[in-house]
Amino acid sequence: MTYEDLWRPLAAIYGSGEAKAIVRYVLDVRFGMSTTDVYCGKVTQLSAEDCHELQKMTDRLMKAEPVQYVLGQADFCGRTMKVGPGVLIPRPETEELCEWIVSSNEKYRAPDTFSEKETCNIRPAILDIGTGSGCIAITLSLDIPSAKVSAWDISAEALSFARLNAAALCAEVTFETQDALVPPDDTARWDIIVSNPPYICQRERTDMERNVVDHEPHQALFVPDDDPLLFYSAIARYAARSLKRDGRLYFEINPLFAGDIQTMLHEYGFTMTETRSDSFGKERFIKGVITGRKQ
What we know:
This protein is of the alpha/beta class.
């Protein structure tokens, strides 16, 4: 097989540019080939065993299976996360959400500069709701070293991947099986709550790529057309009582409902709401602050 033999059939699914990128990514991650190696024709020098493995991977890609599932990993914030069928693949946009949270909470990032008493008082309690692969919770645990991070998901399969990722990256995260729609009766427990909940309406499926619709877990993607704020409302209601004074709620959002979500946050008592756009210029993130609550 040549490089062209590998990418050209995939072009029918992804287009030539993305097909080439996918093949180069596979050759790099699984077979250690640089771009220079690929263009110098080293694909033709693979052993018979490697050729067999590459063919099996190509067969899966031809069924529009995401390359991250084929490789069993995804890149996120400069780290490698294990993924597989049953867990949502981390997106670059979600990296931007993590970067916003970390940069907005600089006071928590240097525990070595605090006295023991100060450290105890300044350790933020962070909750990631709907953790999936654990990418958000793990990133915040590692990039805000003083934080005490917990993460919820309803999927046992997702939590299994999340625990594996946390162990592999030496991140201290407490994972719990918890339905976001039926949260516990907590009061003033968290400093930060973050969630990237299901937010794609069923009617939007026709505009989505086959590799997403056919392979990624629908419970992590879709909400009913008649209740697009299903998860946002449940999480915001929980956050309104479970965040400490001046606690912050961060969401990744469907840009179609940015205004509706902002209005909803105000109704639940959040102030100082702020929306941010992703690198594609879409309103993708929102933050709300709970003020005035006694500790």
